[in-house]
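Weekly structure sync, notes
Attendees: PL, DS, HV (note-taker this week)

Item 1: Rad50/SbcC-type AAA domain-containing protein
DS walked through the input record. Source organism listed as Lysinibacillus xylanilyticus. Sequence as pasted into the shared doc:
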Amino acid sequence: MSYLSFKKLLVIDLKSKRAKEIIFSDGLNLIIGKNKTGKSSLIKSILHTLGCEVKFDDSWEELINLYYLEVSNGESEFIFARNQKYFYIKTPDNDNFETFITYDDFSERFNTIFNINLKITNNNGESVIPTPALLFSYQFIDQDIGWSNIPNRFPNMSHFFEADKMSILYITDTLPNEYFIEKEKKDILKKKISAQEKNNNEVSGFLGTLYEKLNIQEIGSNPDIPIHEESILRLVNEINNTENKIIDLKKMIVSEENIINQSRKVLSIIKGNIDELVKDIKYSNSLPSKLVCPICHTSHTNEFPEILGLISEKDELEILKKETRQHIKLSNENIVNYQNDIVVLEIELEHLKTAIEKLDNQSTFIENIKQEGVLEMANASKELLEEQIEILEGMQLDYIKLDQKVKELSSKKITSGLTKSLKDLYHSNAEALNLELASPSFTNFRPSLKNYSGSDLTRAIYSYYLSVFEYNIFNSTYPFRFLIIDTPNHQGQDEENLLTIYSRLLYMSTLEGQLIMVTERTTGSEDYAHVIELSDYRQVLNKKDYINNLKLIENLDQ
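Item 1 (cont.): predicted structure, written out as C-alpha cells:
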C-alpha cells in the first residue's frame, strides 16, 4: 500500500541567501545535535509547511521566509511549499505550482491527493473537511507541550467538534468511510431541523397574533365587505406603493454600502502593493548600474528602463487607486440621494395616512379592508404552517433513520476492538519501557494519565504514540504512517529515562513506516538509522545548501 514518506526538507532565508537541506529516508531517522543547533525548529518546519500551526522561536520566524518539502506517496512524488500564509503544491502531472491563499483550500487539495474522503463537524455544527492539523494530531510529540498530554493539539484544530475522538477513529481506520458520510448527513439534517423548528415557531406565533386581531379561534369564512369607495381604495394603493418605494430605496442603500466595503478592501490591497513598489524603486536606485551574479559571474544592467518599469507599474496602481476612490465617492453620493428620497417619501406617507384617518372617522370601510387583509393573511399562514409541519415530521423521521445507521456503524462492538488493540499494544510498549501501571483505563481510546508523573508520565505518553504508530502500520489503510518525536528537554531528564525511551527505536526501525526522532545524544540505534548530525551553534543555515538548490529556490521565489 502507498503511504506518505518525507524525502527532503529545505528551509530558506532569501534575504541572506542561506538555507538548510535535510534528506530523510524510510524507516528510522535520527536528528542529533546539541542544544540551540536548530533540531526542533527543523522538525517543526515539516508540519508548518503542511499548515500545522507550531510554535517556533521568534528568531526562527524572523529568519525563515520560505519552506520546501518533498514527499513520496508510492511511486508518485509531490512538493509542498509555504511562504507565511500562502501554500503551494506541485503534483507529478503539473509542471507549475498550484497556489492556495486559504488553509481550507489547501487542505481540500491535500485531502484529494491522499484520498482522504472525510467530512466532520465543527463547533458551529457545520460539515467541513479535516485539515492536516487534525489528521496529524497523533503523529507528533512536541518537546514543549507534547510530553504532558495526549494528543498534541495544534492551535488550528480547536474549531473541530470532538476533534481528538474523531481523528483517532479515522486515522486508525476503525470506522468505515460510510460512517463519516452518514454522520455528515445526520449533522446537516440536525441543523436543518433546528432551522425548520425555528421557522415553524415564528409562523405559529405570527398566526396567533392574527387570530387575536380577528378575535377568533379558527379561520372561517370571510365576513361581508361593503361596497368599495374609490377615494379610500386610491389612498390604500398609494400607501402600499409608497411603502414599497421606501423598501426598494433601502435595498439600494445596502447595495451601495456593499460596493463601498468591497472597494475599500481593494483600496487596501492597492495601497499595500504601491508601498512595496516604492520600496523596490528605492532599493533599485540604491544599487550600482551593473550587477554581477555571484554564481555565474554574468553582468546584469540596473539602468533607467528597468527602474522605469517599476515606476510605470506604480503609476498604473495610482490610477487604479484614484478610480477606486471615485467609485467609493459615487456610492456615497448615491446613498445620500437615496436617503433624501426616503425622507420625501416618508413625509408623503404621513400625509396619506392622515388623509385615511380623516376618512376613517366618516366610514368603517377601512376597518373592513384591514379585516379582509388580516383574514387572507391568516388563511395563507395556516396553510403554510400545515405544510411546514409536514416537512418537519418528514425530516425528523429521516433523522431517526440516519441516527440509527450511524449508531450501527459505530457500535460498541466495533469501537471496543480498537480500544482492545490499543490497550494490548500500549501494554507491550509500556512493559518494554519498564513502566508500571501498564494497564490504565482507556477513555475515548486514550489511556488515563492521572496516576503518572515525572519520567513515568513521559514513558506513558511515549508508549501510547508508539502504539498508534504500530496500529496504523499493521491494521490501517491510513496513508500517513509516520511519527515525529522531539525528545524531552535533556535538562532535567535522567540518563535512565532517556535510555529507556531510546530502547524501543531498534524495534520501531523494523516497521514499514517512517519514524523521525530529534535528540541531543546518541541512541544506540544509529547503525539501523539514517542519521542527520547538526553541530553549528545557532548557525543552522549555510551558503552551500542555498547554492546547491539555487535553481529550485529561484523557481519558488517567482
